[in-house]
Amino acid sequence: MAEIAEGGGSHKGGKKRAKKQSTRIDMTPMVDLAFLLLTFFVLTATFSKPKSMELTFPAPPPPDQKVDEVKNGITFLLSKDDRIFYYEGQFRAADDEKGTKTTLSELDFSQDAKASLHKYLLEKNKGMQDKIRALDIKHKNKQLEDTTFKRMVKEIKADKESYTFLIKTDDQATYKNVIDVIDELNINVVGKYVMVDILKPEMDLVNEKIGPTN
């Protein structure tokens, strides 16, 4: 609010002098308004939430328990220089009656590479994606309820015939590469993937591929 202070005039020589007026702005209402606006924005603001990623870490088996063979398992081995190797099925350090010695193949993180991780997952997961895509069409056409659609998608992902992807890293792999692999698994709607420790025989194969370190 503005206040007007009037100064008294004096008569001199019979002449009446004009009264001088000065203004003073009262900032108290403005301060109150500023605090009200500040309180409003603080109470209505949405704070950024920490981003998280769901990972599955299986519980280690007891020392005397025999580890069962992973059916339809595909193992990714991550190492330095953005290199990613893989093998399918159970790991075998040497030839035996069930199969031949495990050999590693290499993939690339580039989308355009001939042996890219994206193309490999797309090919391996095509059957599951086709099933989910068919359900999605029915869901959009109102032929499936939301709860039924989600339940059926979950059942397809948990199918025993679908692949289980194991992610393993050595001490030279980067955190970024791990996230890149998980992103690709999620993009390709992979239902089952876990992170487990790398075995020494697996690490030996990786070192053979990489070659001696300088």
Describe the structure.
This protein is of the alpha/beta class. The chain has helices at 28-44, 117-124, 126-140, 146-157, 175-187, 200-210; strands at 2-6, 11-12, 15-16, 21-25, 73-78, 84-88, 105-107, 164-169, 192-195. Strands 7-6-5-8-9 form a five-stranded mixed β-sheet, sandwiched between helices. Strands 1-4 form a two-stranded antiparallel sheet. Strands 2-3 form a two-stranded antiparallel ribbon. The relative contact order is 0.14. The mean pLDDT is 80.
Low-confidence region ranges: none
Rounded to the nearest angstrom, the distance between the terminal CA atoms is 78 Å
Which sequence of SSEs, written as H and E, runs from N to C?
EEEEHEEEHHHEHEH
Fraction of residues in helix = 25-40%
Task: Give me the side-by-side strand order of the main sheet.
Answer: 7-6-5-8-9
The number of distinct β-strands equals: 9
Relative strand content: 15-25%
Mean pLDDT: 80
Tally the helices. Answer: 6
**Biggest sheet record:** 5 strands, mixed
Look at the helices and sheets and give the structural class: alpha/beta
The radius of gyration is 35 Å
Shape, per Cα inertia axes: elongated
